[in-house]
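Protocol step 4 of 6: structure prediction from sequence.
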Amino acid sequence: MRRRASGCNGAQGIPEYRESVRRHGDHRSDRRAVLPWIVAGLLLHLVVLGVTAAVNVPLNNVLARAGDTDTDTDLAALRQRFEASWVPANVVRAVASTGAFGLLAWALVEAGRPPG
């Protein structure tokens, strides 16, 4: 009967696994080290979704209801009211998205580093 090349052969594989952990370290604890970066990145993504749902979508709905305006003064007033809320919300979304990308990219960098 041919023995499998894999290092995990039931009870026979346990000493091999222990030796591997002793030599190379337990990678599970190294992977847990990136968890805070991942959680922070995901929280920032939730901020983006929250701002979109709470600010941007309702503003888009206001614009859709406004439809065609008859006068230039109506357009100017609508744009001024729209921009007063839209611009700060968009800045928050942009900063949060960029921060989330950076945090998740850093988690990948940390996860790819050799232990030790």
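Step 5 (inspection) to follow. The mean pLDDT is 81.
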